[in-house]
Design goal:
The chain contains eight helices and twelve strands. The protein is an alpha+beta fold. The structure holds iron/sulfur cluster (SF4) (2 copies).
Length: about 280
């Protein structure tokens, strides 16, 4: 028997695990908790792709009164130009020893929105002071749409997770799923690394979204892999190549960032890059 049976190595009540959230909780509730935790982190490291290379920046994600997440940068930083070219960021935030949040979002520039500028500067007088010699240099971005998940990593033996989407996007699907062609042999359950597979009243097996680690062991063991046990690996690679055209349509066309192209495609305008701009 698997020694990592739920509840055998810890005394957590269900409310301790992911704040009582489950994959049956309303999306708004899961997303609200994630946004609350992210905004409490204040400075976080986010990653993006720039000209095919990974980049990382530190931003201060805050919440607007309407609940949206917002951050700023200077229009004269390479970061701004990277966002204009590919307005997508990802972040993984350790909340504490046992909790982690992953979020992936498309961002939208809202620098022209005076109400947002006023609200932000009122809440952040220090930032206003810092940019006092050229407030128009401050660029504002909101997380427009995205997806993510919250992990509970307790006692290092098992993961529990809930996924969420926001801005009209659905949560990222599990990589592995069991279809109606399952013959009910139970081999996947015997080999599951996380005890995430259970038998339904229909005699077929199912994967619990909260417990699955996406490890793929079940897929390697199922005698009917490809029909009964399905993998999204190929689709996932395709998603990444195409920036997921179905669910992750970039807000602006991507392409080489330079001169006219930059000014044309930047969601906030921004004008021509000055001579001091660097494209990493
Ligand atoms: S191993 Fe495959 S066929 Fe057997 S129960 Fe699991 S999914 Fe169904
Ligand atoms: S992917 Fe791994 S954790 Fe998920 S159901 Fe299959 S074996 Fe279990």
């Amino acid at each position: 028997m698997n020694q990592f049976l739920r509840g055998t190595q810890h005394n957590l009540s269900s409310i301790d695990i992911l704040w009582g959230l489950t994959d049956q909780s309303p999306q708004e509730e899961i997303c609200e908790k994630a946004f609350q935790l992210i905004s409490e982190c204040q400075y976080i490291s986010v990653s993006m792709v720039s000209n095919g290379h990974p980049e990382s920046r530190v931003i201060d994600l805050q919440r607007l009164k309407d609940g949206r997440m917002i951050f700023i940068t200077s229009k004269y930083k390479p970061f701004y130009q990277q966002l204009c070219k590919c307005p997508e960021i990802v972040a993984c935030l350790p909340i504490d020893t046992w909790f982690m949040i992953r979020v992936r979002a498309f961002v939208k520039e809202v620098s022209e929105d005076q109400a947002i500028r006023d609200e932000y500067f009122e809440a952040n007088p220090g930032t206003k002071l810092m940019y006092r010699n050229n407030l128009s240099a401050v660029a504002f971005f909101v997380l427009e749409k995205g997806e993510g998940e919250m992990f509970h990593l307790y006692n290092s033996e098992r993961v529990r997770r809930v996924r969420f989407g926001f801005g009209g996007l659905t949560p990222w699907p599990l990589t592995y799923s069991i279809s109606y062609q399952c013959v009910g042999c139970g081999i996947c359950q015997e080999n599951c690394a996380e005890q995430a597979i259970f038998k339904g009243s229909d005699g077929k097996y199912h994967i619990s979204h909260m417990d699955c680690d996406d490890c793929g062991i079940c897929y390697t063991k199922c005698p009917n892999a490809g029909t009964a046990l399905l993998s999204r690996l190929e689709a996932y690679e395709e998603d990444k190549r195409n920036c997921d055209p179905v669910r992750f349509q970039p807000a602006v066309p991507t392409g080489r960032v330079s001169g006219h192209h930059y000014a044309q495609n930047c969601p906030g305008g921004g004008g021509e890059p000055g001579p001091g701009h660097l494209f990493f």
